[in-house]
Amino acid sequence: MSAAYQHLAVAKARPGMILSDELLDSQGHLLLPRGAVLTEATIALLPRHGIESVAVQVAAAAQPAPDPDAVAQRLAHLFRKNDIDNQNDWATGILRRYVEDYRLQRGVEE
User: Fold this and answer.
1) Is residue 20 a contact partner of residue 10, using CB atoms and an 8 Å limit?
2) Beta strands in 1-110 (DSSP E)
3) pLDDT tens for residues 8-65?
4) Domain boundaries, given as residue ranges, for the chain
5) Cα separation of 53 and 43, whole Å?
6) What stretches of 28-100 adopt beta strand conformation (E)?
7) What pTM did the predictor assign?
8) Does domain 5-57 have CATH number 3.90.105.10?
9) Can you tell me the distance from the alpha carbon of 87 to that of 74, in angstroms, rounded to the nearest whole number?
10) CA 19 – CA 30 distance, rounded (Å)
């Protein structure tokens, strides 16, 4: 199942909602594939197949942009025992850059 889903009673399902998982009947037969868009007709037929609820996708809440100053302060605290200018400790420098890029969502694709 996808990470952002919600179980709804068939009575609360609306046309246009997208299934987050395959919809199976009581015998395990596939009724609708994951990603199928519900229509009025399919919603009306679900109770005939013994379906009482469906798992539908929920729009993910927008994440606020990370605060660069807060990230810098946090990294300074996390790496406080390491000298950032020490050329011999290249591994810590790389790790710090990776953590900074991750926290600032640089180069991260969804």
Assistant:
1) no
2) 5-9, 23-24, 30-32, 53-57
3) 999 999 999 999 999 998 888 999 999 999 999 999 999 999 999 999 998 766 667 8
4) 5-57, 68-103
5) 10
6) 30-32, 53-57
7) 0.52
8) yes
9) 22
10) 13
